[in-house]
User: Fold these one by one.
Assistant:
Number 1:
Amino acid sequence: MSGPLLQGIVVENHGALFDVLVEGGTVRCLLRGKLKKEKRRRVAPVAAGDRVKLSMLGAGRGVIEEVMPRESDLSRRAAGSVPLQQTLVANVEQAVIVFAAAEPRADLFMLDRFLVAATAAGVGPVICINKCDLVDGEPPRARFAVYRQGGFRLLFTSAATGEGVSELRETLKDRQSVLCGPSGVGKSSLLNAVAPGLSLRTGEMGEVTHKGRHTTSAISYLQLPFGGWVADTPGLRQLGFWEVKPTEIAAAFPDLAPYLGRCQYSNCSHRADPGCALTAAVAAGEVEARRLKSFLQMGGGKQ
Ligand SMILES: Nc1nc2c(ncn2[C@@H]2O[C@H](COP(=O)(O)OP(=O)(O)O)[C@@H](O)[C@H]2O)c(=O)[nH]1
Ligand SMILES: [Mg+2]
Ligand SMILES: [Zn+2]
């Protein structure tokens, strides 16, 4: 090792190599061997957003020696038969969950899963419905009303017309965020709209999993010209959970919260049980049947 350790922030991951932004530029780094051994159940001990210490090997090349403790960790279960934790992005405080009003029309069950993942990771969710130019007037707002009533922040945007873009810029300003959601909803287009200098590539296929073939585009952590950082993620078709507890699932369902623990029987399955407070709330029109179904699908009803 030569010289003192430099501090930096991981901005991109290319397989076993990590680009770290330090004062004066980017250093392409390997991991010190001891870091690889530390966490066996992880795909990698370092992810975009991590704050690290590194030593230089030569011009533009270095070795990550140390990873600072994380403030948050948005993880998923990596693809494959062995359960491995894959950190998508570290240290973000906010997740902007992007879905489209149309093309592709938002799958609300998938939106609920993203909300659970963000909430469980301690990352504050903001729901962003993009491509509002493709639908007329109120319908998208009505479709997502349950989320607003539950207390979630909602943005309605169009990268094509600029609708809601200044609101998104305000949301990202001076904060550390991740944009996540399925492929093709306009995440990269929105980032280009808030900060044209980023020049992100759009219209590409994100994560595609065929049998025996798995391509994953890199997650890049970008510095915003108006202050703040944002991670652009490739389309995540599914956010397989990493060890999410039933109480953490419940935290993403504020609309159901007032009824939890109020069923007649403590082992209530919330399906057709007598004295179930949740099914009664659905029957009374106080809770959406679809939200209850989503909650139960994720295993949220378990004691
Ligand atoms: N009509 C319309 N098309 C959009 C909008 N935002 C993105 N697109 C298009 O949707 C496609 C996918 O956009 P992209 O930003 O690559 O999506 P990503 O995969 O979520 O990053 C591209 O062809 C974009 O031009 C929008 O607000 N309205
Ligand atoms: Mg993209
Ligand atoms: Zn019940």
Number 2:
Amino acid sequence: MKKRKKRAKKGEPQTITKAVTHIRLEATNAVKLTALDALASVYLELTQQYVTLFCTDELPNGFRAPCFLTPLSERWHRNAIQQAAGIAKSWRSNRANAYQGYLDALADYQEQKADGTLEEGVKEPEWREWNVPILRQPCIQANANVVKLEEAEDSAFDYWIKVSTLDKSHPLLIPVKLADYHIDALTDPETGKRRKINSSVTLNKRDEDWWLTLTYDETVAVQTPPDAPVIGIDVGIANFVTTSDGKTYGSFNGRLRERQKRDREKRRRKAKLRKCLEKKGTPKEKLPSTTSRTGQRLIRYVRQSINQAVNLCFDDPNHEGCQFAYEQLSVASMRHKARAMNAYMRASNLAHIPDQISWNATKRGVLATHVKSAYSSQECHVCHYVDRKNRPHQQTFCCRVCGHTAHADSNASENIASRLGDLELRACQNRQEVKILLMSRHEQWKQKFGYSVVVPPVQLGLWARSEASTDVG
Ligand SMILES: [Zn+2]
């Protein structure tokens, strides 16, 4: 089951949209499905034209005046424009994120090059422009103007979908038979009645079959009282989830990393072979493809592992009755966390973790609040001193002032927990303001406890210099 969430104010009941997928359209009448095929190929072509337009020359706009010729009806034409606008919008935002990531990596590289801390063999990051998405498989996100779902009474089927076609006076009626697990999913367990199904439906063709996706809305109330104990969640690669009570869930290391390595090797070999064959004059269509099926599988696998890790965290009996605080990941913080992953994996997966946290909280009616992530991995949880050098290794946190030592992710998750309800921090407009605030708290800590008692004399000099430190990670 897929899912989507609509935003609601914190603490209020939230409406979530759940999808019931993989409902196969009955092939009782081959002629009907052939007519659907014909419609889909014209629709796909038109949608592609608008996707290209919205990704290159114009900003995505679902209300744009039609500008391409098509045998489709006006309603279908509008439907195609709207679907294309949605596709182009998400493509543009993913590309913008990846480009920002590249700019950040470049700035990082130049900074390190200037101060001579560049590790050997590190190359200058390069930007490769993204291709406009190509729609390969028929997918129709249809509103009720073009595809209607109707209940089938006195019939062996559950529904009919009524599809308006190229032949305007003859809509297609295609029967839908639900499997038991579809019926379960579409039945409200409290009332035992069929849920109200949303009017928009999705039709997908995979291999030779047509599949229908139905959606319904559900309202979930938040059960957690606002004063419930807070569990902070740090998001990362070595551990997908680290909580402030010292637990970890899921990891990119081990099996996942092995799979990624194998996939990369495979792609490299393929590219080499391609080049070789190209030189020999092999025709283009006979060259091995550059898109990687195993790569797609790997991404799905990483996402499943993330989902499992987040589920485990929420299911943990120790977390019952608690609320959660998690990071609002910025591009800068992602860059820090994801050195181990390649750019594509980074873009597609790291942000998936907070999304999953938010989704899990919503569907379970648990309170989860995102907090600012700036400096959460460099701030000392004890004395608030902020310095990149507090992280001698990726895994270790060791405060250069008070000596507080912890696993780096644990220290970060504790910071995140205490940022919940921290109004001063929330009011900060940018990273600089966050750093100034944290360092002023560090000053207060020093005055309160007298740092000279704690800090060996050798480190005093370090501390004095640190005020001028300009790192931003
Ligand atoms: Zn400290």
